[in-house]
Amino acid sequence: FVFQNIEDQLFSLTVERELAFGLENLGLPKNEINNRINSVIELLGLSELFDKRIPHLSGGQKQKVAIAAAVAMQPEILVLDEPLSELDPRSRLEIVSVLRKLKKERFTIVMVEHRLHEIIPITDKLILFANGELLGCGAPRKLLLDNNLWETLGINLPLPALYALRLPELKGKIDQLPLTPAELVKTLELVG
């Protein structure tokens, strides 16, 4: 689990110690700890942060470290609470890139996030709640075709999806929304 407020999660003074903390508490042998740390550093590209002091890291770097520490524990499901909150745009892009890498490595990720337009392109299943009520569940490309749903909830769609909904040439001709520029181009080519 990765908390929304990273300051509540990080206990150690250095990145190296933070990555080892949970693994040591599992009672793993030193060589297994080192193997897992090296693996997560390589996977998430954290080598430049390894010997840094946590208080000197940016918010995005701290978020990466918290995610890396959770991944090193090898959970069946990685749960993230608002991983993009309180981050600047560049850090948000970096965290989305980290999540994309984890997805490619077949990690199951459950995430609570309000910045849907940034995570929709890497999301397989979207569950929408408002005021404790389930409003929708399904593949984002299909679920968000319902204009009323995303407009009612005030969801900012990725620009390619927004363009697809606004283009008269595509009205009623697509069964799923393009979420990336490449998908929009392909959709336009298919529709002719």
From TrEMBL:
Keyword terms: ATP-binding, Nucleotide-binding, Transport
Annotated Gene Ontology cellular component terms: ATP-binding cassette (ABC) transporter complex
The protein's name in its UniProt record: ABC transporter domain-containing protein
Domain ABC transporter per the UniProt entry, residue ranges: 1-156
Keyword Hydrolase: no
Entries under SUPFAM superfamilies matching the protein: P-loop containing nucleoside triphosphate hydrolases
Gene Ontology terms, MF aspect: ATP binding; ATP hydrolysis activity; ATPase-coupled transmembrane transporter activity
InterPro entries: ABC_transporter-like_ATP-bd (IPR003439), ABC_transporter-like_CS (IPR017871), ABC_transpr_CbiO/EcfA_su (IPR015856), ECF_ABC_transporter_ATP-bd (IPR050095), P-loop_NTPase (IPR027417)
Keyword Signal appears in the UniProt entry: no
Organism: marine sediment metagenome
PANTHER family in UniProt: ENERGY-COUPLING FACTOR TRANSPORTER ATP-BINDING PROTEIN ECFA1, HEAVY METAL TRANSPORTER
